């Protein structure tokens, strides 16, 4: 999809996001064509993997998102070093000699010990709370955004049709621009109203 979309045409912008080292970890790069930005530029979304793409096996690459979601995360800033050392000592006692274990089983048992050490020495990182709507958001603005998205999609579909109809494209573009302007004005009014209410509240609290 094109990153920059205007009535006169569109363009695919080649942007460098990262150094060569980090670039190997970027995956899922895509243009968010279905999101209204109130601009002629679209959002670009991508993920950065902890493992370079060339070092992942096909199986792990296909399920990388699931693995990242299941992999435990720990609050390292709250690490208790004494508990970690004690848990490591206890874990070492439970491990048999290396000669008694195969490579796979040994790695699995060692991973279990590390997991137990982490559990004993620091709390897990919980999922961040879901982001709430911005303070000025309302059902009215949500409806205006839906209408703006619909007008943008209609205009975008019309431009892809062949043969091209400039009159139809122009009409749909005017509708889209008008709905986008209405949405922008509603957001501005909501911000001004909220700021005025907050200022009035502060004045009444601290006369």
Tell me the number of structural domains. Answer: 3
Order of helices and strands: EEHEEHHHHHH
Shape descriptor: elongated
Span between N and C termini?
Answer: 55 Å
Find the structural class using helix and strand composition: mainly alpha
What does the main sheet amount to? 2 strands, antiparallel
Radius of gyration, in angstroms, nearest whole number: 27 Å
Number of strands: 4
- The helicity comes to 40-55%
- The number of helical elements comes to 7
Mean pLDDT: 74
- How much strand? 5-15%
> Unreliable segments (pLDDT under 50, ≥5 consecutive)?
59-69
Protein name: Reverse transcrpitase
InterPro entries: Endo/exonu/phosph_ase_sf
Organism: Danaus plexippus plexippus
Structure in words:
It comes from Danaus plexippus plexippus. This is Reverse transcrpitase. The chain is mainly alpha-helical. It folds into three domains: 4-62, no CATH class; 74-121, no CATH class; 139-205. The protein contains seven helices and four strands. The strands form two sheets. A two-stranded antiparallel sheet has the order 1-2. The protein has a two-stranded antiparallel sheet with strand order 3-4. A hairpin with a 2-residue loop joins strand 1 (4-6) and strand 2 (9-11). Helix 4 (81-94) packs antiparallel against helix 5 (103-121) and helix 6 (139-160) packs antiparallel against helix 7 (166-205). It is elongated and about 80 Å long. It starts with a strand and ends with a helix.
């Amino acid at each position: 999809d094109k990153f920059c979309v205007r009535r006169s045409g569109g363009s695919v912008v080649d942007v460098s996001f990262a150094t060569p080292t980090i670039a190997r970890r970027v995956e899922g790069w895509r243009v968010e064509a279905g999101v209204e930005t109130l601009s002629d530029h679209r959002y670009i979304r991508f993920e950065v993997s902890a493992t370079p793409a060339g070092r992942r096996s096909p199986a792990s690459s296909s399920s990388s998102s699931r693995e990242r979601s299941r992999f435990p995360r720990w609050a390292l800033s709250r690490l208790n070093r004494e508990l970690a050392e004690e848990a490591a000592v206890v874990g070492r006692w439970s491990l048999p000699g290396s000669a008694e274990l195969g490579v796979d089983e040994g790695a699995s048992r060692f991973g279990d010990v590390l997991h137990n050490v982490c559990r004993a020495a620091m709390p897990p990182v919980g999922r961040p709370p879901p982001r709430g709507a911005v303070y000025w958001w309302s059902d009215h603005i949500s409806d205006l955004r839906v209408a703006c998205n619909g007008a943008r999609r209609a205009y975008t579909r019309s431009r892809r049709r062949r043969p091209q109809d400039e009159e139809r494209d122009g009409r749909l573009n005017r509708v889209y621009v008008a709905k986008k302007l209405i949405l922008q004005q509603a957001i501005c009014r909501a911000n001004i109203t909220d700021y005025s209410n907050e200022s009035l509240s502060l004045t009444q609290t601290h006369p």
